[in-house]
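Minutes, project check-in
Item: structure for the 160-residue chain
Input as provided by the requester:
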Amino acid sequence: MTTGSQPLATLAARLDHAGVIVRDLEITAQAWESMGFQLTPPSRQRGRMPDRDEPGPWATANRCAVFREGYLELIGVVDASCFNPWGPFLDRFEGMHILALRVDSADDAWKGLGRIPALADRFAPPCSARESSTWTARRARCGFATSSAATTAAPKDASS
C-alpha cells in the first residue's frame, strides 16, 4: 500500500502494545496463562471519572504479557460497581480494541495515514496537535480512532 508516492512502510511503525478488553479479567487471565503467557500481577486502572474533579479507580484492571519489544495488555472488569470507561467497547464485543504503535514522529505518521484514502478520516490528530499539557504530550498512547464509540469512550489518561 502506498501513501501517494510514499510507501506505507516508510512510516516505520513498531509495536508498542495491543490491548484486549474483556468482561472478566480473572477468567481470561487464567486462559492466557494456560496457553503459556506469563502475566504481570493485576494493576487496577485509575483515571478521570464523570462528575469528579479527582481521578479515581475504574471498574477495570490490567495484566500484561511483556516481550522484549512491546506487550499484550489484557484489560478486564474487576469491580462492576465502579465507572467503566471501556463499557462502550465491551458493548460492541470482547476482544482486541487497542493497537498502539511507536513511531519516530506522531505528527508525520498521522499525516502519512491521512494520505491513505481508506484511513484519511479515521484517526484523530496526535496529542501534541490536540493538547499542550506536558503530561498528555508525553503519553504515547493518546491517538484514538475517530469512530463515535472510541471518541466518546477513549480514556486519555489510562494508567496502563
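Outcome recorded: The chain has one domain: 2-153.
No further action items on this chain.
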